[in-house]
Amino acid sequence: MEREPSASEAAPAAAALFAWGANSYGQLGLGHKEDVLLPQQLNDFCKPRSVRRITGGGGHSAVVTDGGDLFVCGLNKDGQLGLGHTEDIPYFTPCKSLFGCPIQQVACGWDFTIMLTENGQVLSCGSNSFGQLGVPHGPRRCVVPQAIELHKEKVVCIAAGLRHAVAATASGIVFQWGTGLASCGRRLCPGQTLPLFFTAKEPSRVTGLENSKAMCVLAGSDHSASLTDAGEVYVWGSNKHGQLANEAAFLPVPQKIEAHCFQNEKVTAIWSGWTHLVAQTETGKMFTWGRADYGQLGRKLETYEGWKLEKQDSFLPCSRPPNSMPSSPHCLTGATETSFRWHLLGKSSLMSRS
Asked: Please, what is the average pLDDT of the chain?
């Protein structure tokens, strides 16, 4: 989650990058592979104030600077660092195999990475076992970034899940690729034919969003989401932990989360963790929902919050397991503004910029 400081806020004396948590593969970029219990400052591999984005996958991390440079570190078994080899790297290293294009955004899946260049092109590297690189006839892994064809559409936002990826174009169309969600969908929706975008190994248009224009996309472990220009949130995929705010176990077709869940306010920003989501509305209110057993939602849950659809739509045939309850977006009291940045790297590593 990130927010640009307002003009009225006092600038800190000096910016710095800190990392802590699991570090089995050197994903914290500290030059070693020992777990770190307390925040530890990273060496200045770039100017900390120039950091635009920080993200991480199953065991690797990536940083994008304002100048479009990409730095990577951590697990590299499948070439997910894009450095041309498969050796783990315990410190942030520049990725230079990027066709000479500045990077706008990077997204890390479990064992793969996708990059978005400033001219709207998408690149990918790492494991391709589930078609998550978006190259249908490519090798099972790729150690240098390669271009993905998205029907000549300029891409403005990307996201990566466990074994799938999504992208939004300038015209508001959403594409998805990678078969990671297909097995879950078949199991939870027996007898139903899943839409093509769940089984595609190359970018496939997400159907069900034709009447909306996506501004950004998100991906969790086994779910996807999009935020439209009208401030609406659409979700699809696995709902094992209630992260889709729905009673179905699996949504094969995108469904809008009703406005009343956000107190009838437009959503202006949204973020996804592995199995939970966070949204911010036009007045700055923060809403969280999904898995909460590790405190992900920033609030204490005394009991599961029952959430019922006021209207059960016919295109939601998948039933929820009896021991799993849905979650609903809940406003965090006093959290109308965020004053820090934090990023989940993989499952249990954190990195922040002060």
From this structure: 85
